[in-house]
Amino acid sequence: MRVLTPHCLSEALDLLAGDATLTPVAGGTDLLVSWPHRPKDNLSLLDLSRLHAELAPMRMTDGHLELGALTTYWDVITYAPIAGEFPLLIDAARQVGAIQIQTRGTWAGNVANASPAADGVPVMIAYDAEVVLGSRRGRRTVPLCDYYTGYKQTRRAADELILAIRLPRQRRDVHWFHKVGARQAQAITKVGVAVVHGEAGWRVVANSVAPFVCRCRNMEAALESGLHPTGPEELRAIVVRDISPIDDLRSTADYRLNVLARLLYFAPFMPGPANA
Amino acid sequence: MTVVRTLTVNGQKQRVAVEPWETLLDVLREKMNLTGSKKACNVGDCGACTVLVDGEPMNGCLLLAAQLEGRSITTVEGLAQQRHGTAELTPLQQAFVHEGAIQCGFCTPGMVLAATALLNRNPDPAPADIADALAGNLCRCTGYSGIRRAIQRCANYREDGTCAAKCAAAEGHEGTDGHEGGKARRRARESNEGTVFAAGDVGDEPRISDVKSEIHAAAPPRRFSTVGVSMPRVGAADKVTGRALYTADIKLPNMIHGKILGSRIAHGIIKRIDTSKAAKLEGVLAVITGADVPETPYGVSPARYDEHVLAKHKVRHAGDPVAAVAAIDERTAEAAIDLIEVEYEKLPALLDPFEAVAEGAPLIHDQYPRNINTHVEQNFGDVEKAFAESHYVREETFTGNHIYQCPLEPHAAIACWDHDGTLVLYTSTQVPHYVQYTVAHVFHMPLGKIRVIRPAVGGGFGGKAAACPLDLCAAILARKTGRPVKMVYSREEMFHYGRGRHKQHMRFKLGVDRDGRIRAFKSEIYLDGGAYSSFGVATAYYAGSMIPTLYNIPNYRYDGYRVMTNKPAAGAMRGHGVPQPRFAFECLLTMMADDLGIDPIEIRRRNSMRPDTRTVNDLDVGSCEFDATLEAVARKSGWYDKYGKLPPGRGIGIGAGGFVSGAGYCIYRGQVQLSHEKPREHFQKRSIFPHANAVVRITEDGMAAILMIGAAEIGQGSDTILVQCCAEALGIPPQRVRMYSGDSDISPLDLGAYSSRVTLMAGHAVSRAGWDVVEKMKPYAAAMLGCAAEEVFARDGRFYSRRDEGTKARSHEGISDEATKRQGDEGLVAVSHKDEGVVWEEVARRYFNDNGPLVGTGCYKPPEGLGGDFKGATVGTSPAYSFGSAVCEASVDLETGKVRIERFTDFHDCGTPINPLAVHGQVEGAIVMSAGETIMEDVQFDEQGRILNPNLHGYLMMSIKDAPEIFSGLVDSYEPRGPFGAKEIGEGSTLPVLGAVAHAIANATGVWIKDLPITPEKILRALREKSAAKRGAELVETCEVGAE
């Protein structure tokens, strides 16, 4: 096993360009969860810990909130300007594992790990986040909602590193996130959903109900068209076309679908009898 | 590729060479010897390894050391000295010690660090802030109540380092709860109420430090000086500073590491094992398989020894030990294990008891036809006739779940052989003697050649109640290599070892008369035993025998079948065999009360056990204040204002339960001997040898008492209780008693921490040893006081003459127990003669000058003749029984089915408590453990019999955010057979919980869930089915109306 520790970003990108087997590591909280079982002999890690000056800064520009690749959940929780414009980032950050994970885990790592249950990803997609990727070949941005191509599959090329995540600043009037886990903390999500409404329209994003975190575009369209449901079954019939939940250790497909429909139906922004 | 990193650890800058794969936790523990950071899950689930990195809490096991160049690390070892420049405890650490935040102590270092980080950023945290900050730190013992109290009250300790609570506790006899208890007792008597002691977060009762000044002023005469006082735990300071050594923390010179290979399949024949590649790996020193281990089978019940140290030819569950390796380090041992090739002939895996008993199912063990390990058949009275005469009969089926103890500390063992052939075994066990006995049996050695050392133990709950493969493999590997061998289970291996609660499939039928009085009860239970007998025979009996201790059941039939399956062996877990049947019984009784329109608490009171009763199954109930606990929980919880009056989604429920205070008979029969050499003795209805034995030696200057007893402190607090009992008997403050309970060479035999036996049995042994010392001192004290020896008594570090007593001793009504007999009635009135009497240590010195060592001994045998004469009548016998009632308040989110356990109100009859703080700690811990068991814990298996969730993120125990608010109260009670009137609390406190939770959920939702755990998925499905049925019924009604 090797750990390479570049001292600047350009060195890191050189290393990545030269070795397609390198795994970039920021906080390492996802990687180390499976550490005892993972064969390590042929593992090569690209340790990003000394790129703090280049990858950690978090800043609010005129157009965007930019989270550098080493920004942790805790950085967001303790950064006051976020609460007003992007409250769901804080809501989600506080539900990631527990404080020991929040202080170490990064938003970019959450994106890179590509877990369908990732708690940080639904809210970022709901805020129309873009992933900024860099390599020797240059930079490009990919909308987070298009970043995943399958279970644990992403659009990142082997020589690319996530440099930052950019969230556009907009006027938004609905911010809503709900995570259902089997306990109040340190729980892997059974079903989660983030809903945002703003200038760009409705965004409904669910996790743990498909091979990757996904936008529920049929549900978004229904909301755009002034849906006025009379019961959760009506929403269930719509959202079932957006997701593909499964039975697993933590829950059942049936529960996930039903609860997603019920959560949406009883959510405060939903027009209809439940909020009459 | 070793790299060098510069870290600042506890203020010291140092360069350390680290391997790229090494976690900070391993570097701290193995390279820096900072073993205060605990390895409990190793994958970031539990927080026991929490350290501060640049002031922020992080999990040491999730940090690659190579990534930490230049960072500053604080471990628990760095807290105290950072604060004061000496090893003085920080205010938070003091608060942890004094507020009951520490039990087994394994989570404590991580808790303290997480809480330190919280207080650094927020000196005055609200309860929600505390829950947020500690949500990543799991605790299996305390129920988080003491931890919350400690953080909330930390300010008291900060303002005044010599906080009054601390002083009071340190002086012992100025204790707090006892006075409060006395006061409450008087108040209770005046108002004719039953409650005495009270603790909890429902803050209207005064408690500990809140009321200290008032208490000081009004201190009433106390019967005892030390017993009844909420003194902080012996050893708590070591645990809160990371100094306490658990087995895995110990390093011996020349020590190597062992690892066990478990079977990959659940059932099969071993065709071939090839260890050659493993043996050739550099650093490997020994490899053993079934061929290298003794032929002698072992287990727990002598009639059903069916385990081998390593599988001889067959594997019976995934994880069944197949081979073991010793190597220079753990990593090499793990690598070697992966190189062992095993070829199996697969057999069908039987994962369900009904499948296993079916005709034609393969036999897991040849000696158990139809895979039935044991069948218990007990029949008292005439059940069928009584059902026929009953006003109302209801039959229901219930299913339990697979619950594992999950102590935070994984099993660990270190074995080494002395030159004279003595085996020295360090092991994380709750039964040092049974480990010694099992090792003697397997290796055909005398007990006297085996020394078992029990270091600090991080929780047991029954999972450490027998010798485990680590003990035996480590001994064999140490013998083979001539070096000390350490073996530690990973969390995953803990799950594969198993020994958790039996999953029970229960069919219950209950008949009552018009008033709800029980006429008859019939139960048929299939216990899913897993692959080996373990404790299972006793479990099958307990599942039946404890039901009639709570309610008067005139006719009772029980059929229990313990069935072998291809899963890890089930064993004894807190409440041994009883929690699931108790859950089912409580649910059924409540259902029937609702059906009959009788209040569920009222139906319990109509049937409740009375003191001095012989139950239908011949158990002798002595003291019993069950009825008082029911009355108390009803009043304290506001039951009558709430039951049936809460809005949808909110519910309240009642449950009750009780347990033995120590098993009346030993697990093995006969003398202490080599069990393989001598045939088993015919059963006699008496104990052949004492179950608890103690020695007290007084140091030559008379200043300290060395107490030696083999009772196992595993976090439940037994060292503290026993020090209190012994100090009381000796008549000296508890701070002068030093406890040695962890070494079989030093301490005489005690059967260990199981069946809730320690307080009662070991409590007697240590008191008697103390009184033995005092008897020897009396002539010397009498000579100094100028009176007769029989006129002398010892108290608070002095000897007094009864003649000097200004006030005539008054006798305490209704109490004529051993303590009164031995200490005299003087104990009952205040000792107020400060300058009279003679100093205790001077008397001791004079004794030593004349006679040499001043030593006392004491022992305890359960009363003879306990139990009836039918088969299995011994299981369930006990000198005394505890009783308790709990009310649970819960809310259920009807959108998601999620349950929130809001509040618990619990009252127990545990006799007269020795240490109320410790009692409440047991209750609080039991409530959280058992509430989690009811709604979220469950080991799951795939269709091949492999465990799907062998970790603490898949197997869910409650976090601090899930834990309810708890009010724990005790009713006035006195058990004449217990030491100073005490009986058990540790296991009995689990029993009311499951039924109370299930009832509260049913009350909130209108649906009963009869299979555990009660998950949101089950609740939503039941609600949907109910509303579909209702719609169906309405439809039928509409059609019928239409047809008319």
Spell out the blueprint of helices and strands.
The complex is a heterodimer of chains A (276) and B (1044).
Chain A: E1 2-4, H1 9-18, E2 23-25, E3 44-47, H2 52-55, E4 58-60, E5 64-68, H3 73-77, H4 81-85, H5 87-93, H6 99-102, H7 107-113, H8 120-126, E6 130-135, E7 138-143, E8 148-150, E9 153-154, E10 161-168, E11 172-181, E12 189-198, E13 201-207, E14 214-215, H9 217-224, H10 232-239, H11 253-266
Parallel strand pairs in A: 1-3, 2-3
Antiparallel strand pairs in A: 4-5, 5-10, 6-7, 6-10, 8-9, 11-12, 12-13, 13-14
Helix pairs in contact in A: 10-11
Chain B: E1 3-9, E2 12-18, H1 24-31, E3 50-53, E4 56-59, E5 72-74, H2 77-84, H3 91-98, H4 108-121, H5 127-134, H6 145-152, H7 154-159, H8 164-171, H9 177-190, E6 195-200, H10 212-218, H11 236-241, E7 256-262, E8 268-274, H12 276-280, E9 284-289, E10 314-315, E11 321-327, H13 330-339, E12 341-346, H14 353-357, E13 372-380, H15 383-389, E14 392-399, E15 412-417, E16 423-427, H16 432-443, E17 450-453, H17 469-481, E18 485-488, H18 491-497, E19 503-512, E20 518-530, H19 536-545, E21 555-564, H20 579-596, H21 600-607, E22 613-614, E23 620-621, H22 626-637, H23 639-642, E24 650-657, E25 692-698, E26 705-709, H24 718-730, E27 737-740, H25 758-785, E28 792-795, E29 798-801, H26 818-823, E30 838-839, H27 840-851, E31 854-860, E32 883-892, E33 899-909, H28 916-935, E34 965-971, H29 991-1005, H30 1016-1043
Parallel strand pairs in B: 1-5, 7-18, 16-17, 20-21, 26-27, 33-34
Antiparallel strand pairs in B: 1-2, 3-4, 3-5, 6-34, 7-11, 8-10, 8-12, 9-11, 13-21, 14-19, 15-16, 15-18, 19-20, 22-23, 24-32, 25-26, 25-31, 28-29, 29-30, 32-33
Helix pairs in contact in B: 3-6, 4-5, 20-29, 24-25, 25-27, 28-29
